[in-house]
Amino acid sequence: MGIFDRSRPQEADPPATEPPERAALARDEAADAFADPVERARDDAERRIWQEREDRAAAERMISEGDPWG
Fold this sequence. Notes:
It contains 2 helices and no strands. It is mostly helical.
């Protein structure tokens, strides 16, 4: 504590909040802080997963139909 800190009146401790309230506040602050890049990354990951599933399904359909040139 410095000299100037001693001359200022001390602030009262902030009121204690319940753990669920603190968690909600932390989640909201994190969402505000990281919203754009995180949302973009999540959307890209979901799109990539969806495309991989579609590709696998298309490959399975081609295999199950047999050889069209045979």
